[in-house]
Amino acid sequence: MQVAVLAHESFPDRAKTAVGILRYGDHDVRALLDRDTAGDRVSDHVPDLPDVPIVASLDDVEDDLDALIVGVAPIGGAFDPSWRDDVRRALERGYDVIAGLHDFLADDEEFAALAAEHGAELQDVRRPPDDLSVSEGRAGDVDARVVHTVGTDCSTGKMTAAFEVRDAARERGIDAAVVPTGQTGVMIAGWGMVVDRVISDFAAGAVERMVVDAAEDHDLLVVEGQGAIAHPAYSGVTTSILHGAMPDALVLCHVAGQETVHGYESFEIPDPASYATLYEAMAAPVRPADVLAGMVNTSGLDEGPAHEAVESFADELAAPATDPVRFGVDDAVLDALL
Amino acid sequence: MQVAVLAHESFPDRAKTAVGILRYGDHDVRALLDRDTAGDRVSDHVPDLPDVPIVASLDDVEDDLDALIVGVAPIGGAFDPSWRDDVRRALERGYDVIAGLHDFLADDEEFAALAAEHGAELQDVRRPPDDLSVSEGRAGDVDARVVHTVGTDCSTGKMTAAFEVRDAARERGIDAAVVPTGQTGVMIAGWGMVVDRVISDFAAGAVERMVVDAAEDHDLLVVEGQGAIAHPAYSGVTTSILHGAMPDALVLCHVAGQETVHGYESFEIPDPASYATLYEAMAAPVRPADVLAGMVNTSGLDEGPAHEAVESFADELAAPATDPVRFGVDDAVLDALL
């Protein structure tokens, strides 16, 4: 799919979705839209990303595209009026427009009319399908290996870990796919459901449906986790994914040195071994799954301490560990999960 | 509040909400509407319920009421056209109409117009408020004792246990209230939120809001649980309530002799002691709470085996237990929770 990714005034640091699509997406990204850095190349800013031109608006893109992707998600998820011209232009050229905002594009009268007129589709990935139902407890029966990335908090790298495990498995020739459960993962993968937006009765059922469907086409599924099972606010989403996906193996993701829940600092994070045991205890009655590998985000540490943090996390879990971004997913980690 | 309760062709066995309102509600029920048993008295059918006349339609009710409550919830939660005359008549007389159906009364054009014309309110208790947000982790700070009924499955008597604990505490002079989280509980209590209808991101936040608000007015809160923490489909709702409510004590509810999850018979229910340990392990990192009492539904057993089932459950939990409907909430159970 040939796409342009909109990231005005945000690339790279505040454009998590755009960076994720460039790093992990199967899209053919022809241009990045950012009026602040227009004229540069993506690789000028993030060396390991594909070398894509940055332009000021869709008018500067000559290629024929399939879609424009809104690759920035401001706090609150509102649509920024300064994006309006590019979305309008995309629809006029017949391109689909894909976004993960709280404000749904399809609810915008002008966009809806333009989309209808030009045969384009407005895809709001945060909008759940309207035919969801409760889980039937069937995900454990699928004919695929199911790995699930879980965490000690939000923002511990569960999505990144999922895509890195997928890529390491693909390098070994395994037909692997991520089952995305959050808006960035869904935008990157180009399918999936944002589980925290599903009504709680149907959250496990939404995950079950994704796992059952994806298992038809792949041999290894890596289900992206959300939140944390002992998070004061998001544990329900976490639990729904764990029991809806019924995984075979868990990967525990942690930020090196973090001791309290982000934004909820009066709540301590249990030590990694206890946290792994809690996930395993919750998985067991529905479908037993052990924490077979660990992923540590060491981005706050220098090289030496980063290695130490990985080793210490592996010791605590009694399982192989890595920082998937810094050190890659090595054979020991991948072997443990397969 | 003076009310009539609609339970056409359903009283008493298929009218769980009507029976609950009659047994636990603070409403002054002036009449029950059931065209099948019209002319009888409620106590002809269920001896321990209040002696209320059963009539065929609202036309047979001469009292001036505040509301008509739809006290029957058919599978699927659809509005039955045969109820339309009574709802219409109630609105014409200026009464509010309260229902917990999936079909919202307020979305019915005729009802909405009649309600507006006669100054009546259509209350759809399954519709969540539109200003919900994520939990802030504050429920643990409230100035009230918080007890939470949890279960080994759906339909184990968690709502009944909550109201029975409330009533036993009230008899002792304690200002106690139930925090209702399901549609029947909400209909009975006349307030609350149906948590399984809340989007999963906000489920814990909805419970937190209810607990914080109710703690302003009461000394003991009994938070009604939903589902079960190891249920393949509903565990997310259960977890959201546990962490949103941040209780001080747990009551484990179980159906005597049940060994597999209802409707999910390939899933075994962990033994009661293990299940209690799992709830405690999940509560601990957010706010420690132990299972301090057990409630067994023994309705399928004769008197002797029922006593044995209660004793055996108490032994397994190492905590006092009872069947709250059959044997009442005794001092040992109540003392353990306070």
TrEMBL record, chains A, B:
Membrane-spanning residues? none
Q: Which domain of life is it from?
A: Archaea
Gene3D superfamilies per record:
NAD(P)-binding Rossmann-like Domain, P-loop containing nucleotide triphosphate hydrolases
In terms of SUPFAM superfamilies, this protein maps to:
P-loop containing nucleoside triphosphate hydrolases
- What residues does the D-glutamate N-acetyltransferase-like N-terminal domain cover? 36-128
D-glutamate N-acetyltransferase-like C-terminal domain location, by residue? 134-331
Q: Which PANTHER family match?
A: DUF1611 DOMAIN-CONTAINING PROTEIN, GLL3100 PROTEIN
- Recorded protein name is Uncharacterized conserved protein, NAD-dependent epimerase/dehydratase family
Q: Which organism is it from?
A: Halomicrobium zhouii
